[in-house]
Predict the structure.
Amino acid sequence: MTDLTPAHPETEYPIVVEGLRNSFDGYVVHENLSLKVRKGEVLGVVGGSGTGKSVLMRSIIGLQQPDAGEVTVLGHRMGAEEDEEGGIDLRSRWGVLFQGGALFSTLTVGENVEVPLRQFYPDMTDTLRSEIARFKVRLSGLSGEAAFKYPGELSGGMRKRAGLARALALDPELLFLDEPTAGLDPIGAAAFDSLTRELKETLGLTVFLITHDLDTLYAICDRVAVLADKKVIAVGTIDELLALDHPWIQEYFNGPRGRAALDAKDRPAGAPVHEVPRQSGLGPAQPEERIEADKSDFAPDIDDKRAGMDSADRTEA
Ligand SMILES: Nc1ncnc2c1ncn2[C@@H]1O[C@H](COP(=O)(O)OP(=O)(O)OP(=O)(O)O)[C@@H](O)[C@H]1O
Ligand SMILES: [Mg+2]
């Protein structure tokens, strides 16, 4: 991997992945993948569809057992026997917004946010738990009333915010977001970006952000990691990445869509914010594509049969 900005103290990496290998029935997704995420940064993770971004995230949070390699999160080696007992506590130190949202459809938004609180703080009083849940709902930009609604009663954007509220339930140090703006309209996506950045600044979060959304990359990411050829081929600022002579990187950031996203970022304050349509890095920005993305947002949520299970063990809806 080309780490374009290597001068950083070793202790400042809450996530360290080394020599990771993942495969499914002989199909190798990652081979010798390494990545270090810095404390307090928003790290964007990009790569073509199917390159293993979500699998990488699942490996980091312990939902995917790798064939080989080491994953160290907040100083704990994932999967190591001596850390088995500390594993539960460790899971309370991160929050995850899965690609499909993964809200429990038969629980209200507030009850969804309460799930991790119940899990990690079983002795908490009902009143305190529901107050914290409502606070997180508000923190995520939803009205207090939204706490009493069911996921099916919310728009796609509101459901993303509800998922974010649940990810923030335990005051995490690390926030994992898998395609948080997919399927949102441009205004909703820009608002979600601002919220992510604001939460990162005010709560001191480190954010691992998987996205195809070039506007998001330009707007809120401190650095970007590029997945290709089964590994992270480079990590750095967008300017640093652009200085590399890699065809995929050049096409992604320097193609017409990348340039439009850059123009949008550089637009002076006060200019219409959504003059340039938000760009996804993959293929042409056809209306069909947005509709396709919208569909995934309305994928059925997890039913309540699974509501009793550990929230961190859930896979994407
Ligand atoms: N549980 C699984 N069983 C078998 N194959 C899997 C499993 N999870 C992921 N894969 C395969 O691993 C590869 C990487 O999947 P992953 O979901 O990480 O891609 P991605 O980069 O997140 O793609 P997208 O941008 O479309 O979300 C794909 O080929 C996928 O089919
Ligand atoms: Mg994915």
Summary: Residues 269-277, 280-317 have pLDDT under 50 and may be disordered. Residues 107-172 form one domain. The chain has eleven helices and eleven strands.
